[in-house]
Amino acid sequence: MGSRRGYAVLRRFAALAVVCVFLVSAGVAIDHSVQAAGKTLSLIIDAQADRADEAEIIAAYLREIGVEAEVRIWEWSALRERALEGERQIWLSDWGSAYFDPFDLVIPKLATADRGNYSGYSNPELDELLTLVQMTADQEQRKEAYFNAQRIIYDDAPWIFGYMLKETEAARVEITDWQPSMDSRINLHDVGITRGDTIVVGMRADKILTLDPGAYRDRDTETVIRNIFDGLVTRTWDGEVVPEIAESWTVPSGDVYIFKIREGVKFHNGEPLDADDVVFTFRRILEDGAIAGQSSPRKGLLGPLEKVEKVDQYTVKFTLANPFPIFPQALVHFQIVPKDYIEEVGDLEFAAKPVGAGPFKFKEGRLDDQIVLERFDEYYGGSPEIPPVGAAPARQVIFRMMPEPTVRVAALKAGEVHIIQQVPPDLASALAADRNIQVKNVDGTRVYIVEMNCRKPPFDDVRVRRALNYAVDWDAILTSIYGGNGIRLASAFLPSGFGFDPSLEPYPYDPEQAKALLREAGYSVR
Amino acid sequence: MTRTQVQILERIIAAIPIMLGVVICAFLFMRMIPGDPVDIMMGEAGGVTLEEIESLRAEFDLDKPIHVQLTRYLGRLVRGDMGYSIQRSRPVREIIFEAIPATIELAMFALLFALVVGIPLGIASARHQNSVIDRVGMTASFLGISMPAFWLGIIGIIVFSLRLGWFPTSGRITYGMEPAAVTGLLTLDALIAGDIQALKDALRHLALPTITLGAGVAAIVARVTRSSMLEALKTDYVLFAKAKGVPEFVIVVKHALRNALIPTVTVVGLQVGTLLGGNMIVETIFGWPGLGRVVVDAIFARDYPVVQAAVMIYAMTFVLMNLTTDIIYTYLNPKLTL
User: Fold this and answer.
1) Contact state of B98 with A289 under an 8 Å Cβ cutoff
2) Which residues 6+ apart lie within 8 Å of A284 measured at CB?
3) Does residue A1 surpass a pLDDT of 80?
4) Contact call for B59 and A289, based on CB within 8 A
5) A288 interaction partners in chain B (CB closer than 8 Å)
6) Could you tell me the pTM of the whole model?
7) In Å, how far from its chain's centre is CA A365?
8) What are the structural domains of chain B?
């Protein structure tokens, strides 16, 4: 869950305003209402504290159509467990996707009994389509399947479909060639600085988890790691996969990938990088207990990968259990580690003094304080598809953990840091007005939704689920709470992902339609 | 060994079952809260297979019955092994001991600030009861108690870091100025190394967090000192000293203050525990890499081994602080014994 404390003040005012408008309009509405027959739909909307105001507004919209709705605030892990047990009715949640393909979003969230499917939604027709997209390499066929899946999900409405947020980042004007990327990566290899030679980044995170590329699951850790380590492939800021340590790759059949490794790539300790290191990197993740006796938490991200073999010194063959067309997208997130060094010093020492083949080498630091890296002068240059190629312009870079958004903004203005992540929307416009600061937006890759428990009444009835989709005016919520930084979603698909159907329009705000559906389902409405 | 030394030793030995009890409570309570560490580690993103989650749970013994988990944990603990962090893939001991110096340094400075500001303010207010000094002092202490740390800290940053540029916004020391690590307390290490520049830099970084954390304690100290001082100033022995013609300063400091300090010591003793354990907010605001942040984060992540170890350390701190408080009592009032 991203830390979004920065929105708090703005959100509180917005929520108050919207709730007030409702109280007034509700008072007016009662006079004209006709109490229909049927039982009253009574709901408790569960939310985490950082979306409490949003939940209150949703509750107000539902009360408007005659639903009794109240908000209850939870800590996420506690709520998640109860929701998974089928004990909760309706709750606000979110899910991140990293592959620019619905594979890691729609499947875990909506395939029957998959890990993130807290709503208990199940539709065999959808399951079939979702199996197909994982098994075939034919992109046209996959696209069609995804289009069909979107229609089904839209009609079944297992969630109140929500929105995605744009991420706002900011940098001082002395920073050049800087572009926030959709996968939240801060790639400092390409970034220059016109004053001094050290770039300091104010991270949104409280800490990163490790410097071992095999032992984490979160994006903040990855941001730092990917400046020390390179992968076989990388991604442009807008999501296209391009070669990095790999020179090229071929796909002789859907389930075999052959990667040719660039010659002359060196690790920070001077050792050359070859096929042995690549094979070691992936075996370390695939095999149980391979990292200091523990298993890597990253195995699932590799999909159906079964076997990694060395063909010759600079060629590696990946064999998959079934065709997996987004395998290159997955590989972006796997950084190559030095076999000899790790075997010599051990996994724990490697995490303490990491050696990679990336543009910067680790100098010193603490995971919950700051990580200091310095330029690797013998760097092979990085992806030729993302110029400039060569050693990084900055001599030194520092990643500082600054979990408090207001403080990140203050430090940027004071010149203590040069780039900051996650600018709160209420501070973005003031920052943009500062002549010393540049502010940029990029589409996020996380969906924010309201999940409904499809296993039990009232939400086992699709009419009720659809009614709730008609009942909430998301555009008003996005404007008032998120400063217009959100983009509405028609279903569970992100516009940046493969197979997105732009012709599908989100449910409109139509309280009359919502009431009609509820009435049809046997509930009284206002 | 003197009698006092024996008593101190007894108290320390008596603390062992207390700490054991605390650890067991922490162990059980953490497991009663819903939420699973491996699930949380996997996050609300991406694909994971359920088998993968089960095998990770097994690696951390999470699939075993709770009494098996507890016995295994205690067995390792008595051998000095605090376990392995689920979330951070590192030994817990490393994580905790890395974070402790920053927390101790900040707590020490905040305490120093609280005493240096609070006690004189309390004395002055009592000495000039109902005067302008008293009213201003007590209003200030009222503000000190009322202002929440997250507000005071951010206002401090906006005014003193951003507008005036006096202090840095966050961090412990400017990168490149760190003295050679001996104690982990940067100010002390700078003194040991004789590095005045590093000392100055560390103090500049300490200023805002110290005031933010110490303001509330200073306010409490001022109020307690004032009220007990008022009482002490009305006693017969003070009246007698006055009649004898003892100078005012000596009466206040030597006769009244020594007696008036006992309630203050009690309050300070309790506050030190809070300063060490409850400064997560200040640590977050100022990017201060201390134990408070580690613990809160571990609680949210259900990183059981880290939480258990930290709770044990906190319990130890409270036991030691209580003992220290009692020792100071006996010094202030020789009639009391341990």
Assistant:
1) no
2) A214, A290, A291, A296, A337, A342
3) no
4) yes
5) 55
6) 0.87
7) 26
8) 3-78 (no CATH), 96-332 (1.10.3720.10)
